[in-house]
Amino acid sequence: MLVTSLTTAALFVPVVTANELNLQQMAAPLYRTEKQIIFHRLDNGLQLRLLPLADNQLVSLASQFNVGSRDEPSGQTGYAHLFEHMLFKGSENAPGDSYAQTMSAISGQFNASTFFDFTNYYLTIPSEALKLSLWLEADRFIRPALTDQTVKNQQDTVLEEMATSIDNQPYVRKAMEFLLTQARDTPYGHAVIGSREDVKNATKEALKQFHHNHYRPDAMQLSIVGALPENTTLWVEEEFGQWQNPEQALKPPLKMQFENKLVHAEVIDERGPWPALLLAWHTVGQTHSDAAAVSLLEAYLFQNRSSLIKQSGLTEPDQLLTYSIPMTMEQMGVSNLIMVPRAKTSLDQLAGNVEQAIETLATDGISDEDLSQLKANWLNKRLQLIDRPSLLARALSATLAQDSLTPLTGPWERINAVSPAMLQAAAQTYFSQGYVRLNLLPPWYIRWTKTLLEWFPTGVSDTLEDLVL
């Protein structure tokens, strides 16, 4: 019986294919790097991750706060982004432009960004400047100095940014406002940069209250990567350990669900140089069980050079340009695709091409080989972080709660667990049930010319297209 049992067990040892073995070998650096991470949680809830790197003279810090535009009440849109600007303009012990001047003096590089779910701050400095930098970071995060003059200056800066990046660009304002209506009555229903009126009306007192409510240690992840001095943990404790949380507890994330249905609209912009097509699909948030499959699906359909959309236009292309940057928030996701047509191609034809590609995938699925390639592409992008300490620090500070102890390998294991059947099911669930279509249209005379070119023979339309462009 014992011999039979052992023999039977041996027969059921899983066979590792060459592709699976290659992926395991590719992923090995993630596991090796993760083993070097030192995890520490301060008594006030601040999460700290330290990753010492040999043969490195620099240190990269990244601080991410669990606060973004989703936390802004009515009348205070844009506050998270505005406050990000304020934190570079003075703190209790480093007033005015002291922060920027000090970073310049030590050859430090720094920046920040705000999104729907988070605000992050990151810098790279020489190792010997780490203690000073931690002091500066703690001072501005805990004790920002807001004055009427700095608030006014940064309001003007944000309004100028709004004009440059949104209002002065063809299609952007109208398209953004239309897409945001698809998330109306949710925390994601307004732009990260906020409304012009709310930004102009922001007050010092309201911004101070925003800081008090949302800048708190239990909402912060701090990652430090590079040439770490021996006392790094001690310095973090000294600078951040006495920081107290507000009395109110952190709010639990809202549960939201969106249905995909066909929405068709158009916007006309007299500054538009050429027609374009914007398509969008509601998907899922980062913590959803389908998030990994959706991520691979977006790459397969829209993003890689070998994507279905790109492959469909390698010869005699119907589009001049395709562009896709999926947006994944904690509780919702949006896949998107912008396509600029050739002169001979209508927007309806472009939309039909995309529908056909999605229908083929939803019906026929994907091969094991194609799925392995998708996973390898995902791994290659993830492995690039290891060679770039600044990006690695930012990735560690963006760790989901479910990956708190496996910030590098947790996401990979979910990606690796995706099967062809899971990918096909995601295509059927999130991409085959309808989508948002927005036609971006230029003035009438360009539309008229474009329609005329669609009726010309291909050679003629191509020649005229080259002249127009």
TrEMBL record:
Residues 202-376 form the Peptidase M16 C-terminal domain. Keywords: Hydrolase, Metalloprotease, Protease, Zinc. One of its GO terms (molecular function) is metal ion binding. GO terms for biological process: proteolysis. Residues 57-191 form the Peptidase M16 N-terminal domain. The keyword Hydrolase applies. SUPFAM superfamilies: LuxS/MPP-like metallohydrolase. It holds the Pfam family Peptidase_M16_C. Belongs to the peptidase M16 family. This is Peptidase M16 domain protein. It comes from Shewanella sediminis (strain HAW-EB3).
